[in-house]
What does this fold into?
Amino acid sequence: MNYEAFNRHIFQFYTLRNSTSFCDLGITTEDVEKICSIQEIHAFAELKHSWNDLLRIEKEIPQYFGLLAVQCLAATLMEADDDNSHRDYNVRLSQLLGLEEKHTLQALYLGDGAEGPIQEQIWQSAVEFLRLGFGLVIRIPDASSHAGRFIQYPKSQALLSKEDLKRCTSFYFVGWEGVGSASENPVRGETIEPSYG
It folds into this structure.
């Protein structure tokens, strides 16, 4: 499979799976492998060189959806392993892309234009393209200048982590007995105190 075909399949995956206007770009290994093997991603030269070219539209589809899927997959893999630093994310993404030099990824995030980092341009473009063309709303963080600024976008789309699930579980157990009161955990017989923050 070539990158253009991968991108088209990923684009279809994202646009067809949403039944409401709110969507996310989270993706699992199983989702990707229904389209191509993880090892095939290493062969996509388009993801190893300037990402500026991915802003182009081919057959009415921007060419960055495949990249966004790979970035979101790296975030999902990282969350599954409880490794949450930007360094851990960059290692995951470099492995998925088959990059050998650690500085290559930073150069790819920055791109080669004067209009700001290409990573931010691509994510903003995807938000606008899906909103205007399909009525789909994706929430992403505002652009920033702190460490991790380039990975905040795929991390915001990652599927729930183990820590997120712990918080959600506590919230739902509290909800059974009423907000603000402790409730009995029917699974373990524990009392769970509500936590807001």
